[in-house]
Every structure is written in C-alpha cells, then in structure tokens.
Design a protein that fits this description.
With 124 residues, the chain is mostly beta strands. It contains one helix and nine strands.
Amino acid sequence: ELATIDSAGGVQYQVQRGGNYWNGALIKTKFIRGIAPTGNATVAYAHGITDGRIIGCQTWLRHDTTLTNASYTARNWGVPPNNGFQTDLVYYAGFDSLYVWARFPATSTATRSDSLYFLVQYWD
C-alpha cells in the first residue's frame, strides 16, 4: 500500500525496512488548520491522536493579511514559530498529548486573524 488519504487520518505510508520496531508500522500525517488570535493569547486545537504516538509537528503561520508588517507586505508567505524576523511576527508553537497550540505575545500585532497550519506526523 503506497498511500491512503482520508479526512480522519490524513496521509499514511507503511515502513517496509525499519528494523524490528518500525517494520510494518504506518506513519501518518494529519493537517490541522486554525486562526491566529489577537496578541497576548494562546490557541489550542485538539488533534485526536493517541498519547505518545506523535513523532513531530510542523507549524506555520500563513501571513495572509496585507500591509500589517512594514517589511513584508505581500500576501500568503509562511512564518515559522520562534522566528527572528520582527517582534510583530513572533509566536511560539508546540504540542502535547491532547492539543497542538500556538502562543502569541502582545507584540504579535501583525499576525491577527492569519491562518495557522499544523502538520502532525505520528505512527499507528
């Protein structure tokens, strides 16, 4: 089986030669979308993945508003967490056993109502 795609589990692939532990395991990817809040707030979204199975999580803020940052006025460019661009774009992100989350300090004035993307990889 090369790949299976569904709305509940995302994309998955099977490890064929991963040693005794990983051989035959399914590695899945789940995509979760959210919206950045106003500054000085944290947003969290339930991921629904069994505790301890998450391998990693990539988070991106899609800066999809215009003219909210002096240096970057184009729409739809990606901003990673913990970035060093400017204080009005800084945010922090992570995950735990229940949620993916993003924390926006009060100085994050250029991120308001922008799109958040979480790409979670886990084994099944």
